[in-house]
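Much of what follows relies on a compact textual record of a protein's fold. With that in mind, consider the following protein and its fold in token form.
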Amino acid sequence: MLNDKHMKFIVLGSGTAVPHARRSSSGYWLETGGGSIVLDCSASAIHRMAKENCDWANLDAIWISYFHLDHCGGLVPFLFGTKNAIETKNRKKPLKIFGGKGLKNLINAFDKTNDYDLLKQPFPVAIVEVEPLEKFELLPQIEAVALDTPHTTESLAIHIRDAGDKTFVYTSDTGFDKSLATFAGNVDLLVMECSFFKDKPVEKHLELSEAMFLIRYAQPKRVVLTHFYADWKGRDFQQEVANFSPQCKVIEAVDGLRLEIINR
């Protein structure tokens, strides 16, 4: 666990549901003074945790932004794994799983397919369904609040604040909504989807011009753009971003990217 002056962020998966040689599906590791959090848990993300030497056996919390499989498809395999792993047989501290309405039904539905008893772990497991715009304790001294996003009925962005007053926002998949700029206002790190470069084929994702508009109004200290479809292939990310004259550093997510958020 880090001290209260640090957060550590690791990209486990910067891609989508579409198979890609270098981009796994969605997953992000956030280590804080209150414990470790995985933000979305695709099937590939659970193995990426091990590859990045994350302490997955002592993971404290999981956030599921919504129920498309490239964001939650690894949750059940992860619980199946922790139930049987040597690394977790002596674990006693609880694991908390957070998400929107329907999360309990989702886990129970998978659980019943083969009588897995996924929640009968060597350690306690709590499933918490959160309400948008109501603050909740993600971990000790880690405060969070969720925001409805225009993607699916249950999709949520999350704002996290630690005891040292460092702030972090993860939008997950979302269409364009100016309220996201207010939600992410002045945060230390904004992790935002940018599925398409230009002329997006659907409204429920962002393209670069929309993402840069939201960044300009949110004025975060740093931004990581992620969740890239093949539309981005062959694009010079830094040059395309520079064309919008961003007022902060905008970083391309790649699997294995590591950043630190430090109070100075």
